[in-house]
Amino acid sequence: MARRGSGGLVRLLVTLAMLLAAVAEEATVAPAEIGVEHAPAAPAQSASEEAPALASETEAEQHNQPPPQHLLPRPLIIELPSEAAAAAREAAAGEGQDEAPADAVAATLELEVQVDLVPAAPAQDAFENAAAEQYQHLPRPLVFEPAVDDVPADVRCASWRLAAEANNLAPWKAVPAGCAAHVRDYIAGAAYRSDLDLVARESTTYARAAPLRGDGRDAWVFDIDETLLSNLPYYAEHGYGLELFDHQKFDRWVERGEALAIPSSLKLYNEVRELGFKTFLLTGRSEGHLDITAENLKKQGFHDWDKLILREACDCKKTATVYKSEKRKAMEEEGYRILGNSGDQWSDLLGWSMSARSFKLPNPMYYIP
């Protein structure tokens, strides 16, 4: 009797252990929908090492099914370090789950990383612990932004020259001290001549296609200094624009009548005249320099212009933009159509009564408002 009673007690204990294991399997908490999967709990064992597990085939299939589509990880994944994984295992154990193998936990503890690297959402469930807080803000892209002081001087000066040519600078009176050598090398080198040649070629292409009416009223306006004639010998002696402009010194240079023709501009001038344009030379030089200016132009190959316009006494206090706009307006009032305009200063081209097409020649040596 004692032997049979003992056997019945063993069977009763085994049955109770099997029932407890089944209840534990059914009580497993479903993973929260935050992009984190919990590792499946290990099969419960009975008090006896020889007792079989009671997990059904249906439950095993549920554990092996892939997660829903909205829970799948995105292409960029980071894995929590071992400390966070350990904390997650402790949290899982606190919820009544058995400890899963370390590799299974590491495989499931993956956190989505948004492609645009915005701050991650606050951690939830198993991640509500101090170890996961460090991942709430993900690293931003590494952007290399050199300091301005690290940019070579020649690069800074090239940027300054481009801004000056594009009329993006505030009115300036002299070339920056650190850019004098850059301006000198540009003006005295091949780049300046190449830029002048390109402007002349584009101007010629436009002039040949312009719709002239043949009534003698189609006009082209030319500035003189640094447009038709070059004052490079003067500016070479005065720092290529590094020195502040001195009207008296420049007037003495003008009176020598030694300015040189810009070859590409002379070619354009002759082409425009042959096409039938009226040529108006509009300069900021004072009227007292009329004769020497005309002589200098002829000596350099410029002939047969229709008008040579210089500043009168009443124009002395006007800006170049106002003065030249008024003169162009007077041309229009006389019945002329201004189809082209060439100048090295924006004040040669802007204002009112502007031409149908304007061509800006390069000049980083000085600025005239």
From TrEMBL:
Cited InterPro entries: Acid_phosphat_B-like, Acid_phosphatase_pln, HAD-like_sf, HAD_sf
- Give the record's keywords alphabetically: Signal
Note the SUPFAM superfamilies from the entry.
Answer: HAD-like
Give TM segment ranges. none
Annotated segments matching region Disordered: 40-72
- Protein origin, superkingdom: Eukaryota
State the Pfam families in the record. Acid_phosphat_B (PF03767)
Q: Which residues form the signal peptide?
A: 1-24
| Cited Gene3D superfamilies | HAD superfamily/HAD-like
- Any one GO molecular-function label of the UniProt entry: acid phosphatase activity
Q: Which CDD domains match?
A: HAD_VSP
* Regions of compositional bias (Low complexity) in chain numbering: 40-57
NCBIfam families per the record?
A: plant-AP
| Protein name as catalogued | Acid phosphatase
